[in-house]
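Narrative progress, year one. The postdoctoral researcher (J.K.) led the effort to move from monomer predictions toward full complexes, under supervision of the PI. The following entry was the first complex the group processed end to end, covering 1512 residues in total.
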Amino acid sequence: MHTLRLGLIGSGFMGRTHALAAHSVGLVFPQYGAPTCEILADTDAAQAADQAAALGFRRSTGDWRELVADAQVDIVDICTPNHLHYPMAKAALEHGKHVYCEKPLALSVDESRELAALAKDRGCVTLVGFNYAKNPIITMAGNLIAQGALGRIHHVRGTHIEDYLADPKRPGGWRTRQALAGLGALGDLCHILSLTQRLVGEPVAVCADFQTVYRERPDGPVENEDQMHALLRFDGGAIGTIECSRVAWGRKNGLTLEISGSKGSLCFDQERQNELYFYRGGEGDPQGFKRILLGPDQPDYAAFCPAPGHGLGFNDLKVIEMRDLLEAINGSGQSWPDFGAAARIDAVTAAMAASFDSGGWVSVNTTNAGCSGTSNQG
Amino acid sequence: MHTLRLGLIGSGFMGRTHALAAHSVGLVFPQYGAPTCEILADTDAAQAADQAAALGFRRSTGDWRELVADAQVDIVDICTPNHLHYPMAKAALEHGKHVYCEKPLALSVDESRELAALAKDRGCVTLVGFNYAKNPIITMAGNLIAQGALGRIHHVRGTHIEDYLADPKRPGGWRTRQALAGLGALGDLCHILSLTQRLVGEPVAVCADFQTVYRERPDGPVENEDQMHALLRFDGGAIGTIECSRVAWGRKNGLTLEISGSKGSLCFDQERQNELYFYRGGEGDPQGFKRILLGPDQPDYAAFCPAPGHGLGFNDLKVIEMRDLLEAINGSGQSWPDFGAAARIDAVTAAMAASFDSGGWVSVNTTNAGCSGTSNQG
Amino acid sequence: MHTLRLGLIGSGFMGRTHALAAHSVGLVFPQYGAPTCEILADTDAAQAADQAAALGFRRSTGDWRELVADAQVDIVDICTPNHLHYPMAKAALEHGKHVYCEKPLALSVDESRELAALAKDRGCVTLVGFNYAKNPIITMAGNLIAQGALGRIHHVRGTHIEDYLADPKRPGGWRTRQALAGLGALGDLCHILSLTQRLVGEPVAVCADFQTVYRERPDGPVENEDQMHALLRFDGGAIGTIECSRVAWGRKNGLTLEISGSKGSLCFDQERQNELYFYRGGEGDPQGFKRILLGPDQPDYAAFCPAPGHGLGFNDLKVIEMRDLLEAINGSGQSWPDFGAAARIDAVTAAMAASFDSGGWVSVNTTNAGCSGTSNQG
Amino acid sequence: MHTLRLGLIGSGFMGRTHALAAHSVGLVFPQYGAPTCEILADTDAAQAADQAAALGFRRSTGDWRELVADAQVDIVDICTPNHLHYPMAKAALEHGKHVYCEKPLALSVDESRELAALAKDRGCVTLVGFNYAKNPIITMAGNLIAQGALGRIHHVRGTHIEDYLADPKRPGGWRTRQALAGLGALGDLCHILSLTQRLVGEPVAVCADFQTVYRERPDGPVENEDQMHALLRFDGGAIGTIECSRVAWGRKNGLTLEISGSKGSLCFDQERQNELYFYRGGEGDPQGFKRILLGPDQPDYAAFCPAPGHGLGFNDLKVIEMRDLLEAINGSGQSWPDFGAAARIDAVTAAMAASFDSGGWVSVNTTNAGCSGTSNQG
């Protein structure tokens, strides 16, 4: 096991979060050693140099193509606007690098599948940044499901709703431009699909409605949806709804999930990310939803803190995510959600968009979905 | 204004609740006088006599046809299983009685419309028992919407989920028989559609999925859906989802609503029926959802209690509902939801069933929907 | 068992609530028959006549002394300002009436004890209106404690805090005058002591602090405390705090309780009166506070509604309270909290006041506390 | 500004948390540069070497006296059991080091004051690890108070209750031994006093009750209190209660606070550390407690994440705390809570213990409390 060297592209919100995680992961999870923060690429050489200094990287470059080709880089970490994920990931894989990429993986499912196939072909480890699925309390939920605590799952309701564009006077930026962002609310907030992939399974058919509530913003026309929702049918027989919105006043990180099965139910709300609500049906004690606070009985929490109820934060989830990447590279070779799993999520979002266009139910095309890690399906 | 005389058919859960309301309404809301509990009909003469004694009715009968024809009856109050609503309401209207009927109004939208037309023709006041819409905190929500506190509504998510049939070993009874109940979870829990009708408007198109999770129960096959959910498009441009379930472990009266508009959001949960959550978007004070506790600034609460936060219960909602009926008979002649409004709700549920059958979007047929009271549309 | 005849004195907030309960109790709890609303007394004959008509009483009087002497009255029900409780209850007992009195029983513990002794001497049933202790979910809490679910109780924290005088510009009325109200926040909100009496036991020593936050109001000087809190030691070894306030902005009916024992904990909040939070310590399932919603497994809930989670309201608690009174008169002869139990509560509040005056711990004087019903001590 | 070099003593729960913070603080708050993790001391040389490797320290030693004397150390960071704080801090100050020490500062208020005086004398910056007071939402609460949003504070209720010793079969370890820990629940959970010091002011008199619920544990007798509570009077006129417990089943980090003033109220619960509840009294909009989610309008949150509602965790609070230390050393020379402020907290806990011993109210001795940073008093 040699020290892995990270090349980071982009130093905005996500880039900085990745950098913080890279500096902490070796301390929190020492099993795989601390990665080296080798080189940082940004839009120009000056900014890259500044950011490399600020974020603790050894070297910097204004040219990401240089980074992906750098022999001193083992992992290419892509934290750029959505439309750049595909060319950067492709180039990195072609250089045989492991790739860690923010979501969504690409702007089209074809691109995602191409990347998944390429990663498989080159034997590269890949991981896409669906960080909320790394919450130890989601792991606990997955374990409860795997142990049968919910029985057979028959319904799931998920949301990822926020209000960052609820004010119509707010400029949309690149997120409202189709060429740069692809989908709108769904593309940005497709985290909910990573939770259902982990906990429930794969959607096989969807029927969706999309709406652009504000067609004009101060910086121009809005080219993708402000809100959407969909009906889903899952491979295991469960049905469900999901909803994504960037115009839902009051919701700051409204990633919520309620799963019902033949023996019980689970609820989760990312705004209270250290809590899980669990109801076990049946006789005996008085019944009610139990509020479970995250504690050190969950190993990925214990790595941060030995005392229960002290609380993890958003940035901690990225540390766990990076640990998963290092573990896959150093060990199993399998991460989740890798490019194959992310391509399956992209196939779902593509099917939803197609459903809105066609005005009816659409099957999710899972053909040729590329290599994929094992998902913890219920 | 003469004293109104009530004839009650049925003395189960709902019949008893109506009887309690009839005895209280004159004290709580003295404006329209106390109705007389004149006669009670039940399945046979003996049971009717027992129930009349227990529930404080002057007379009893084992034959509901006698009751609807009784000259001493002004209001026929129907609290029987669903399949009897139509023939009883029809007979009562034909005798020129005002009719107060539990939901759903009928087993088919055609029947509902026929009843609505008949009521209009005969000049009878009608009211259907969508009691949750009578909660003063829903009235407050309606007022906030009418005052523009939410701006233009663009999304609503509603649920009415319970767990009374979550245990597959539990017998289904008449509720799982199509001939007796009509629809399953949707028919029983269509209250959510009365809330959206009051607060958001009328759905114009729907796309639904239905599922019978348990096809067999100890008392025979299950003939209608255990759970369903749907996408909706409303006349005012808003979109939304609704979900009904009788197999959602842990939810006892999970009638919930989240409404988002251009200026703010509202949330409601019937399990905490004295609370409303309101978020006002914009600048100024630190922002957050405000938990508003029902208090005497709402007149329909003040009628019960002059102190805030003391809490109304389920039975109190029926008292308000009965007040609405008396008010309409004594005054405006208009109640909500009358048979016309209930027929519009039935048109929505029928469209949902049709959508599931056809596998796609279905327009809600609002043709010939009969007379209707004014709904407080946002 | 003959029909019991009620004479009600006072028709304000509480008088009206009692009248509503008297009209409902026979329907909800038919075991003891419906009491007759015989006569209502108010400050003058005209108002009494109006209120008797409004509240469904047969007769009326402007002179309460006439009512307590009336041969057609079995139960005297006292809903007047605090300082009138003692003379009215005394007169009623001297006429051999059963007495139902709002809290606090009297302005001094000596008066309370005198009344308790008199009631015992005359063999009258008495009941004091600590309605929150009648909540079926408090009964459930008591049963859990009796079954040992909490083990040995070692701590209790109780509050009853409201904000009805939080605004210093609001007039204080009779509640801020010592001669009319006695104690201030503690006298008005001593309900918390009825909950601890029922669930935990009797305090044996207290140490309290009182504060009049606003010494002047628009209608004159304030003569009793706006807020108080105290340390308590209970007979069973538990310790606890209680807090009462009428100046706690935002709290409308902040009657809360948290009880911890060797095996578990319970939490209750009257603002969410249909919920109980229960934590069972130990191994096994993931642990957490369980939110238990009131349902028909509790008989006093089932009497109102057969479906769980539908919710009781404040007025329903008074119906249960009146049922307890009728049951004691018709059956056991024992009610709780009778005048003896209420005198013990008054002994606690008196000890708290003495503690503030003396600046230290004070033993609760339980000498001669009169007859008392059994309390459900943990 | 030169790079500050840290010497850490102890590598248990707190030592590891400090190490993580030391590695992150320069990235999150770049203003003061990243400190160097210079040397780590532990109970013996081997363990120290292992931990230094694990936690990213350059050097190690088995002798803390060597560390405090090390010329390459600017800051001595003490994360050992309580009884070692005093000798280590004293030695460090005598070597002119800045000192960062976990709470409680010492086992007696005399020791704390001696340390505070020594720090003042030597001109050293000191900081005690009351990390919860560093939560940006507590800063927001302090700002709201400073801006007058609560008006004049009249009441505070605080708890810090946990259940780590609720199971009587659990060994007590050093925390239950007076010579090693000093006070029990109060000593361990005195965080609540740092919150009141920051937000409300200094207690001037206290009256407390202590209880050792379980006098024997598997590893021997318990020598300090399992639970305690107290009445307090604050310098500004407010009164309040605090409660600490290590035997409160179900509470994992029950550090809660409710503050009421003449214009509004605030509530906080560390188990939901990213939320603040705020009630503004008065007219206008419907009133209610507003749930404010931490967001980037608070600079100390923005340093971690630019998006609202994403949540900080426990470890993040230590990063902010360390930033405060670096800022004081590099800039103002003033930190809070420094040894002077911590000695004032220790004076309060000492007064509480004295109150329990004497059985009555005790004035807090603030004589000679040493130098102190400014607290954000309301």
